[in-house]
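Hi, here's the filled form for the chain we discussed.

Project: internal
Contact: R.S.
Residues: 148
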Amino acid sequence: MSLILRKDAVAGAFFTVVSLYFLSGSLQYEFGRLSNIGPANFPLGLSVILLAIGVVTLAKSVRSPELVNFAGSAVRPILLVVGALVFFSLAIERLGIVIAIFATVLVASRSDRLLPWNRSLLIAMVMTLLVVAIFRFGLRIYVPLWPW
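And the returned structure, exactly as it came back:
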């Protein structure tokens, strides 16, 4: 499978779509006044900055004559990382942070075919321990550790 696109077109389109999504979400919050700004201002400001970056990147890629061949091998890492993030967002409340983080890091680390399984397991264990230590004990944020 081969897909030929202009250089940076995918990144520009991605930035633009993500910024528009968060921009629309920020409009649901209160803006407040100049002396007492509301919660909508921060995500709105970041969305506008990201939108500008996306539009500039997209415009630059349209004018660029350089084409990039995205081979089928480039699709696998993208799907694994995005799939791992989707899994995490769906699993964090149901499975607890230990299982969700471990599985997410394990799946995302498999996007690199050269990384051995034992390293993937080690990375997943270390990241799980770090996340639990930071959120549960360092920041004292209650996140369920296990599903039971």
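Let me know if anything looks off before we file it.
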